[in-house]
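I'm curious: can you give me some protein's one-letter sequence along with its C-alpha cells because I've never seen that pairing?
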Amino acid sequence: MQRLWLADGALEKTPRVLIHRGAFTDQSRAGRTVPFKLYYPDEDGSLPLPVVFWSHGLGGSREGAGFLSRFLAGHGYVVVHVQHPGTDSALWEGKPGHPWDVIRATKIPRKTVLDRYRDVPFVLDRLKDWAQDNPQIGQKMDFSRIGMSGHSFGANTTQILAGQQIGRGARAYRLHDPRFRAGILYSPIPAYNRDEGLETVYGGLSIPLLHMTGTKDESPLEGFGWERRREVFEHSGAPGQYFMALKEGDHMVFAGSRGKLGGNPLRETHEDLIRLTSLAFWDAYLRGDEVALAWLRDGGVQDWLEKRALFMARQNP
C-alpha cells in the first residue's frame, strides 16, 4: 500500500483509534505488576497489523506520547505502551517539589533498571497469550512484525533490547531480544561504559534504528546535548541507521509534555515531523514498503524536511 506520508496531507485526518488498558503480573519477579496501554485502529482494514512497543522516559508512564501513538494506530499499527514500576511517575507523584527535582534526588537501584529492561520481553510474552484470549483485539496483532521504541530512558531501553552492551570487561553482557525487527530512539542515551570503546558498546546493535533528537535536546539530569546522542548512530554495528535532529527541538517534544521547559512555538511542527518520519520508518521496516525505504535512504526525507531538521542515512556499519 502506498502511503500519503510523502505529503503533509497525511496529517490532516487520523482514523478513529481505540484504547485498552491492562496489566500483567510476573510471579517470577516477586509479583511485579507491569501496566500496559494499547492503541489500535477501530476499523479492521488489512489484518493482522504490525505491533510497535513504546517505553516511557524516567518519571513517565503509559499515558505519554499519545500524539504519536494515536497517529500510528490510525495508520495501521497496534501500539503497546509499557509502564515500568520503579522508574515511572510514582517516583514523584504526591511528593513536594517539581517532579524533575524529585527525580534528580532519587537513586535508582541497578535491579530496578534491569527490571525495566526485562519488562518489555515479559509483556510481549504475555501479550501473545492474551491476544488469543481476546480475539477482538488480538486478531489485529501480527507478532512476526514487531518494532521497539521509546523516549530518553525508553530509548535506552530500546538500545539495550537491540543489543547494546551492558557492563564492562568480564561482567559485560547483552539483553538483545531478536523478536524486534527495527527500533526508533527518541532522545537516544549515550553509554556510561565508554572506557570499553564505543564500537564495542554499540557494535552489538543489530537492527535498523531511527535516531531522533533536537538541537536543544539537553538531558534534564546529566546536561549532555544532541551531539552526544549522535554517537549511538555513528557507532551502531547494524545497517539501516537513520539520524534526525529537529532544529530547535527540545527533550520533551517527543513525550508530548513539557516538564520544566517553557513553551515551544515549534511544537506542532515538530510533532508533525516526528509522526510522519516515524510512520515512514515503520512502513519501511515492518511493512516492507520500498517507497518508504527509498524516501528514507535516498534523500527524499531531507528534501521534505528542508531546513526544519538535519537528516542522515547510513546503510553500512
Remarks:
- Residues 215 and 248 are 5 Å apart (CA to CA).
